[in-house]
Amino acid sequence: MADSEVGREYARTRDIVIVFAVLLVLTALLVTVLVEAWPPAPTPAPDGRAPSAAAKTVHLFGWSPTVSRDTCLFLVVMAAGALGAVTHVLRSFYWYVGNRALRRSWLMMYLTLPIVGALFGLMVYLVVRGGLTSPLGGADDVNPYGVAAIAALVGQFSRETAEKFRAVFATLLAPAQRGRDHAIPPKVSSIDPDNGPPGTAVTIQGDGLDGATSVRFGAARAAVIDATDTLVRTTLPAGATTAPPVVNTPAGSAVSPEPFTVD
């Protein structure tokens, strides 16, 4: 099957400005939700009994619902997870734009990753509440700072979180049968640029590259800056020689069909 040409062209200035504006607006909205939904500290009862968490009125863009502390915690972890993902998106975004290597096919990832971060933050919060706290403990026993910090880190490292979930539950659940939806073997289709001196930022495209551990340029090995299923970012290391780059992944190695020429 021929590779699709959809989204292969580089992002235009208009695309970059629109995505950047959306990310800034989304950041402001998430910070507002995080601040407004932050649960108040439990107040001691007048008779000296254990403190209880009162409901809170949350003011969100003309909507002012009164929610419980549990609901506030759900909102906090989802907003923190999305903010962590936005941090990762902005860092990757300025790297690609600064190196003039941003392709239009990546724009959808930048817009959907905050949603993934929010959902991962919520999932980890449910795991923590279900397994690491007392089954009789309520929302009063949860430190919002701790769960917000965990959710933000999970959102920022969503790919690593997904890999950890897969590693943990692979030992508990039966492996899925191989089929058409099984992970494909790694393959390199192109490199950009295909020449340059040591220190050059190199983008390698292909399939099955998620989890790449290193890239070899001749006898020199380069660390992976970022890796997804279709793309690997790295920097040409010192000592590299002209040769087809080799991407090393847990599923095997993939050799570029074209060499990288070291200037």
UniProtKB/TrEMBL annotation:
Pfam families: TIG. The chain crosses the membrane at residues 16-35, 73-94, 106-128. Residues 186-259 form the IPT/TIG domain. The lineage of its organism: Bacteria, Bacillati, Actinomycetota, Actinomycetes, Streptosporangiales. Residues 239-263 are annotated as: Disordered. GO terms for biological process: carbohydrate metabolic process. InterPro entries: Ig-like_fold, Ig_E-set, IPT_dom. It comes from Actinomadura syzygii. SUPFAM superfamilies: E set domains (SSF81296). CDD domains: IPT. This is IPT/TIG domain-containing protein. Keywords: Membrane, Transmembrane, Transmembrane helix.
